[in-house]
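re: ur question from yesterday

yeah so i grabbed the chain u mentioned. its 330 aa long if i counted rite. heres the sequnce exactly as i have it in my notes:
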Amino acid sequence: MEYMPHESKITLTIPREQAGKRLDKVLAELFPEYSRSRLQDWLRQGHIRVDGEPCQAKQKVRGDEQLWIDVPELEPTDEVQPERIALHVIHEDSELIVVAKPAGMVVHPAAGNREGTLQNALLHRYPELVGLPRGGLVHRLDKDTSGLLVVARNLRAHKSLVDQLQARTVTRQYDAIVQGTLVAGGTVEAPLGRHPVDRKRMAVRRGDAGGRGAKQAVTHYRIAEKFRQHTYLHVKLETGRTHQIRVHMAHLKKPLVGDPVYGSRMKVPRECTPRLRECLQTFRRQALHAARLGLNHPASGEPLEWRVEMPEDMQELLAALREDTAKHDD
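ran it thru and got these structure tokens back, copy pasting raw so excuse formatting
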């Protein structure tokens, strides 16, 4: 697919494999960074043309047509207000920003969390992001997961990053500390969907009845360090589903330490050191940290990678686990 964004205009050739589909569905597939309602509004307002002609949502495409979009300037909304909040910026250039999100910060505003989010902070420091979907954020981390996130600074970068995520070429590696011991690394391939009872949770959904709406999810993990009753893992995402690592680890009966949703009651090893006992009893979030992020630069195509150390609470937990293991190995 030829894609040539310039300023606020996009032109591309509709892929032949889209032949026979409705235009509105083709647009949703080609531009996942925009909501369907926004794309439909642009169709009605004449901002989208096919082969230079006005078009309708229900018309069928044949493939190879020239699609032209004149993206209207987006106005600031009252939904997300800029806020002066400290940001840990790892990298920034004209195309993208990489930030390290602390545990406890929500990424996008939602009911009950309208202020103090990463998006609020980004809009204050980078006002130009108001013209991009979700303030340029193309992926997310759970509130209590720390680590790296990439943010697009313009439409071209946004499209490139979304495409890379969909093509699974973005590298995302996490540090995780789980309850229980594992013999070796491995891969979890288990589809995820909404929990059948608790709609705020995700669950492994298999079978025709339980699997409706479930999406493929693949998680790779390898052992970084073993302890008496815990394991430190390096986890790599192949897909990026909501709560994916948390649900897959719980599926293995090895929930993340401190996970309030998918973890079982915190198990404190018998005869453990006072330091480890205190760490485990006071660890109030999932022990998960997005430590490594790799992608291709949206403009140059250059492979880039960033790493950030795990926060102090996880470092202290690892130190306590090592001390406890060493004591019992003596």
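noticed a couple things. The chain has eight helices and 15 strands. also The longest strand covers residues 171-179.
anyway ttyl
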